[in-house]
């Protein structure tokens, strides 16, 4: 399979074209590296070629990154020394890119080289950006829809093919750190402003070709290869540079709380590399990159946030043999914050939206949410008045149910009360077409029970959004006992249209996500009643990588909501409801009117502008702080195990049908320790035998909520891992 080809024109410009057959976007493979190496050698050896342009044969894109099988091959080829295999393989990539960078010049005089430019017709990410950084000039398309960047940190690694070292040498540590540590993909003009690329043009190939023909010898000597080079902003031993690295270290630890190995390794590679010459810096980068790749966290993050997420986005769990169910016209029942958000993302996807509420004023208020959102986008330069008007024109806000005629999907987002939902279901089903799918956006109520109000239960399904809808990446789809395959396909196709990641679960109270989130919150509440410091609880969670701790999360989601869920669950479960001292705390806070952030009073004190000031000390009058606080690890284990055991039970009971959904859903829905790859991946890292043993210890100390599920016990006895026992590839087959 040919991935790289070399051609030359009459003017002596050689063009190396990257075009992987059968792929919508180029990815770097083992074969591709060898072919690129050959093309570079041929171009440098051919006296008729004056210079080279490296570009893509894909319209609108350059490259999307590296084929992960390449890294796997490096490890496998090294047998029982996988770290050595990875390091040596990465160093070969460094050697190739260094060859491009030096372009045949004499290493001492820096003369005799050929200019090599990269022309990026579209999106370039990962190795797709690291390769251009090794060329002498980067030309990119002015298409505002394409983006450029180094997003590796988002999947648990960092740019390890020279991208880290080159970007720091090019921009300085201060300017490069946000690009490397946040992994943001930038539009062309912003990428140029940041210094990542050199030229923005309508025709990158033509511009690159012109530059190659007119380049001077000095144009092809990289700054770090030139005599007297000094790093922008100063090296670590320079007073200014020292402060830069102090600030960068503080920024990393502030954002990651030390929970993400890749961020610490990246910063180490940057700091240590800045102390030495360029080639030694590349070797240091390769060592840290190898260290990260050998960390089980890296593999788990790549699997969940890249491979598994991509598979779910592409319909891995979609019912077979169901034709396309893309939504044309959607009805949204309820114009509150949730309904307004659903209307917004649906209109953004080009759908015709009917937004229903009890009266015109309430419906209009819901539509104004989209207007405000677009106005903010216009101020930030991300939208235009024309786009705003077009989007608003797609939303019809009305109290008139007859407007729902012609809809092919209904999403009900009314008050979380079975009676209210049942009444609305009956009214709407009398109006909509017989083949229209009806979905409820309930967050806790079983779908099978809600479907009893429907005359077409096979077309009734749950579509659970997370708030705020426009920002959250996950949508949880819930199958009732009678939900048919077409309804599932419809829901999945709709989620694909609005560009979010779906998971499909079977019906049960709280479904999957809330089933795991609620114990996390409740465990934090239990610890408060035991006298554990709220700061210790929240910081323990943040140091595990959770975006917010359970105490703060209570305030953010509103305390009265927690009280309402507790009462409803107790009413539904009766004597089976597990009483918790956390409920008493919530009810007490509710009686005091301390409802959380929305009331400017909860577990936190707030100032007049609604900003958190400090934890509310009044709580300690009822629940005094214990004289002896628990160990940090003990708090973290309670918070982790109480969630992962629910994930195991959900898999055991058939609520989860695919372990990929359990891991991806946990990370995207509530930010479950992303470094772990998700709850089931975390148990694989921990080892099922140790996990089962620790469950027994926690159960003895804290109660039956930590009891080891039979499935975990069985797997521990056999030494099994979740990703081997429940291999998604075998399940799909």
TrEMBL record:
It catalyses: a (3S)-3-hydroxyacyl-CoA + NAD(+) = a 3-oxoacyl-CoA + NADH + H(+). The keyword NAD applies. GO terms for molecular function: enoyl-CoA hydratase activity; long-chain (3S)-3-hydroxyacyl-CoA dehydrogenase (NAD+) activity; NAD+ binding. Pathway: Lipid metabolism; fatty acid beta-oxidation. It holds the Pfam family ECH_1. Signal peptide: none annotated. Residues 511-606 form the 3-hydroxyacyl-CoA dehydrogenase C-terminal domain. Keywords: Fatty acid metabolism, Lipid degradation, Lipid metabolism, Lyase, Multifunctional enzyme, NAD, Oxidoreductase. The keyword Cytoplasm does not apply. Residues 329-507 form the 3-hydroxyacyl-CoA dehydrogenase NAD binding domain. GO terms for biological process: fatty acid beta-oxidation. PANTHER family: TRIFUNCTIONAL ENZYME SUBUNIT ALPHA, TRIFUNCTIONAL ENZYME SUBUNIT ALPHA, MITOCHONDRIAL. In the central section; belongs to the 3-hydroxyacyl-CoA dehydrogenase family. This is 3-hydroxyacyl-CoA dehydrogenase. It comes from Parasedimentitalea maritima.
């Amino acid at each position: 399979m040919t991935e790289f080809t070399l051609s030359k024109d009459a003017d002596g410009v050689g063009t190396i074209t990257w075009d992987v057959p059968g792929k919508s976007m180029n990815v770097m493979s083992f074969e591709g590296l060898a072919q690129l190496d050959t093309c570079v050698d041929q171009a440098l050896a051919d006296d008729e070629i004056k210079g080279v342009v490296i570009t893509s044969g894909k319209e609108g894109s350059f490259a999307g990154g590296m084929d992960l099988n390449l890294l796997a091959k490096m490890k496998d080829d090294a047998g029982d020394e996988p770290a050595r295999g990875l390091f040596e393989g990465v160093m070969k990539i460094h050697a190739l890119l260094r060859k491009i960078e030096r372009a045949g010049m004499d290493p001492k005089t820096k003369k005799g080289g050929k200019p090599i430019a990269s022309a990026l017709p579209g999106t370039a990410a990962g190795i797709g950006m690291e390769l251009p950084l090794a060329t002498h000039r980067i030309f990119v398309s002015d298409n505002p829809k394409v983006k450029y960047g180094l997003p590796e940190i988002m999947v648990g690694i960092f740019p390890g093919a020279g991208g880290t070292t080159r970007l720091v040498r090019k921009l300085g540590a201060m300017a490069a750190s946000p690009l490397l540590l946040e992994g943001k993909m930038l539009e062309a003009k912003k990428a140029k402003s940041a210094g990542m690329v050199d030229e923005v043009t309508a025709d990158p190939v033509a511009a690159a070709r012109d530059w190659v023909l007119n380049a001077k010898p000095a144009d092809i000597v990289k700054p770090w290869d030139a005599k007297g080079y000094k790093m922008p902003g100063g090296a670590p031993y320079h007073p200014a540079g020292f402060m830069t690295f102090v600030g960068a270290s503080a920024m990393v630890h502030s954002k990651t709380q030390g929970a993400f190995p890749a961020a610490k390794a990246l910063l180490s590679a940057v700091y240590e590399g800045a102390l030495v010459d360029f080639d030694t810096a590349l070797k240091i980068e390769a060592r840290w990159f190898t260290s990260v790749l050998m960390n089980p966290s890296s593999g788990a993050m790549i699997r969940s946030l890249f491979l598994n997420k991509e598979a779910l986005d592409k319909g891995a769990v979609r019912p077979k043999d169901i034709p396309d169910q893309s939504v044309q016209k959607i009805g949204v029942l309820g114009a509150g914050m949730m309904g307004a958000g659903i209307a917004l993302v649906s209109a953004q996807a080009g759908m015709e939206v009917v937004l229903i509420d009890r009266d015109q004023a309430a419906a209009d208020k819901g539509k104004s949410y989209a207007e405000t959102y677009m106005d903010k986008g216009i101020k930030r330069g991300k939208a235009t008045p024309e786009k705003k008007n077009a989007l608003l024109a797609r939303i019809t806000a009305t109290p008139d149910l007859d407007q729902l005629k012609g809809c092919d999907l209904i999403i009900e987002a009314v008050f979380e009360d079975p009676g209210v939902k049942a009444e609305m279901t009956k009214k709407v089903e009398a109006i909509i077409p017989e083949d229209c799918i009806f979905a409820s956006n309930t967050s806790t109520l079983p779908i099978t029970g809600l479907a009893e109000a429907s005359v077409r239960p096979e077309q009734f399904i749950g579509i659970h959004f997370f708030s705020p809808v426009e920002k959250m990446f996950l949508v949880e789809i819930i199958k009732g006992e009678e939900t048919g395959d077409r309804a599932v396909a419809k829901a999945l196709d709709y989620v694909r249209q609005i560009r979010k990641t779906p998971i499909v679960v079977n019906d049960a109270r709280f479904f999957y996500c809330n089933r795991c989130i609620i114990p996390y919150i409740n465990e934090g509440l239990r610890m408060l009643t035991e006298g554990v410091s709220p700061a210790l609880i929240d910081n323990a969670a943040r140091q595990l990588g959770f975006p917010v701790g359970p105490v703060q999360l209570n305030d953010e989601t509103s305390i009265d909501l927690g009280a309402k869920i507790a009462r409803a669950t107790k009413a539904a479960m009766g004597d089976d409801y597990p009483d918790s001292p956390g409920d008493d705390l919530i009810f007490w806070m509710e009686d005091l009117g301390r409802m959380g952030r929305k009331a400017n009073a909860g577990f936190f004190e707030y100032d007049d502008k609604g900003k958190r000031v400090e934890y509310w000390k009044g709580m300690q009058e009822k629940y005094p702080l214990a004289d002896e606080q628990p160990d940090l690890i003990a708090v973290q284990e309670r918070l982790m195990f109480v969630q992962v055991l629910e994930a195991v039970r959900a898999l055991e009971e058939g609520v989860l049908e695919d372990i990929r959904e359990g891991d991806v859903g946990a990370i995207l829905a509530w930010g479950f320790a992303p470094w772990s790859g998700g709850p089931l991946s975390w148990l694989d890292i921990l080892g099922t035998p140790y996990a089962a043993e620790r469950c027994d210890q926690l159960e003895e100390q804290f109660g039956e909520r930590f009891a080891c599920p039979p499935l975990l016990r069985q797997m521990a006895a056999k030494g099994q891992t979740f990703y081997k026992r429940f291999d998604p590839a075998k399940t799909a087959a």
